[in-house]
Structure of Phosphogluconate dehydratase:
Amino acid sequence: MTDLDPTIARVTRRIVERSKDKRARYLALVEREGEKFADRGFLSCSNLAHGFAAAGEDKASIASPRGGPNLAIVTAYNDMLSAHQPYGRYPEQMKLYAREVGATAQVAGGVPAMCDGVTQGFDGMELSLFSRDAIALATGIAMSHAMFDGMALLGICDKIVPGLVIGALRFGHLPAIFIPSGPMPSGIANKEKQKVRQLYAEGKVGRDELLASESASYHSPGTCTFYGTANSNQMMMEMMGLHMPGAAFVPPNTPLRQALTRAAVHRLAAIGRKGNDFRPMARVVDEKAIVNACVGLLATGGSTNHAIHLPAMARAAGIVLDWEDLAELSAAVPLITRVYPNGSGDVNHFHAAGGMGYVIRELLDAGLAHADVLTISAGGMRDYAFEPHLDEEELGWKPAPETSGDDAMLRPVSAPFLADGGMRLVSGNLGRATFKTSAVDAERWTIEAPCRVFETQEAVSHAFAAGELDRDVVVVVRFQGPRANGMPELHKLTPPLGVLQDRGYKVALVTDGRMSGASGKVPAAIHVTPEALGGGPLALLRDGDVVRLCATDGTLSTTADLAGRDPAPAPIAEMGMGRELFAMFRMGAGGAEQGGSAMLEVAGL
C-alpha cells in the first residue's frame, strides 16, 4: 500500500482539526435525524396516504412497514439544457429498476437548472451563482416529506451539482448517489471554435458565421464537451465516491449508460439503513473525500468555479476548507491532464484515452489521494480505478488502461504536464484571489502594467472596440462580487483580451467576479475578496495605477498609495430578469473564499 503524500496528509489533518467542532455538530444532527426518521412508519396514516396516493402499483410496498426501501428521485430535468434533456425518461426507467430489487422510487421534487452558456454576458447570469442556493433549498423541500430511504440525484451542470450536494448533505442520514447522463458527441475542433470567436471579436466575421460555429460545437443532447464546471462536477463526484465507478463520461442514450443507471438504482437500494451495508451520505462526504475532490480538480486542471463551490459544499458537511488548503495541495499535485480549454481535445477524447479510471489509479498509486474512504461502491476508492463495460449485456468493470491512450492529453504522475496543479492563491494589498496557471503559458505568469478600471464587461468591450486597450494593461472589472450583483461569470471578456494578448501586449484581468471553467490563456486574478462593494481595495483603484499580478510569488498588489482614497460609488443594483427577487441573497452573501452563499451564512453553517 502506497504511503500518503506528506502534503496531502498535512492539509487533511489541518482541515480535520479546523473543522472539529462544526463537523461534530453536523454528525450529531445527522445521527438525531436518522433516529427520528428511521422509517416512514412514524407518519400518521393520513400523512402516509397522501405520500403514496398516486404511486400506482407501488402503493402496497410504500404503505407496508415490511416494504422495501423507497428512493427519492430529485431531478434537475429540463429540455433546454442539453446536458439535462436525457433525464426526461429517467424516472420511469428508475422505477422499473427499483422494482427489480424489491424497492420503489418516487420523484420527490425538481430543482431549477439554468444554463450559464445561454446566460453568459446577459442579465440572467446575475442569477447564476445564487441558483446554487435555490437548488439546495429546492432539494431540502423535496426531501422534507420524510418518505424516503435514499436519494438519487439527477444533476450535472455548473451550480446544479454543488446545490444538490449542499441540499442533500442536510439529509446526510440517508445514502445518496449521483446519476449523470454523459457528454454529447464531439463537434468541431475546439481551436477552430476559439479562432472564430476571436475573429468575431475583431469584427472580421459576422454573426451568421459565429452562430454556425457555435452550433457545430453545441449540437445535441448531452453535456457540453469542454472541460468546464459541468464536467469538473462529474470528475468530483467520482473522486468523492458518489457515482457508480466510471459513470462520469459515458455518452447518453447508450446501452452502457442505461446499464450504469440501473446499477445505481440497485446500489442505492442496497446501501440504506435497512440493509447490511449502510453508507449514509454524511459518512461518505468527510474531510478525506473533500481533499480527494480538491486533488482531482488540481490534477485535471478543472474549473476555477470550484474554488467557490468546494468550500460551500464542505460547509454543508461541517467541514471548513479555504484557499490556503487549495494552494498548498496545488503545490503537491501535478497536472496530468490537458483537456480543452487547457488542451486541444475534449472530454470524449479524455475518456477514450483512459479517463477518470486512469487518473484515479495514478493518484492513488502515487499517494496523492485518500484510498481509505467510504464510497457508495463496495470496494471503496480503488473501485474507481476501473472502467465500466458491457459483456453480452452484462455490466462489469475492468482495470483502467496501464498506459495513456494519448499522452498529449493524459499522462502519468511520473511525467506530468506541470509539476503542480495550477490553482494558485495570489494576495496583497488588493485582496486575495485565484489564479489558474494551468491554462496560461509560464512566461505570462507575471504581469505588471497600468490598470484600466471598469464596472461592467460591456464597458470593456466598448473600450476594446475603440482601440483604447491597445497597450500593456491590467483590466480591472469590479463590483462583480456576490453582494454587488451575484458574481456573474465574465466569459465575454475572454475573446477581446485574448486578441490583445495575441497582438503582443502584456495583458491581465483582475476582478471580483468569476471566469468559470472556461478560464483560458489570459492571466487572471479572479474571485478577488473582499469584493469591491463594501470597501474592498478594488474600489480604491484608479485608471493608471500600476498593478502587479504574479503567480510565481503569489502577488496581487498595486504600487499606488490607497490610503485616504474614497471608494468608488457602487453601481445601483439593476432590476429585470428576476434579479430583484434575489436581493436577499445578495444582501446576505458571504465572501468568495467562504463559498459566496447567503443561505449558508444565514444558517450559521
User: Anything to note?
Assistant: The chain has two domains: 6-185+220-399, 423-571.
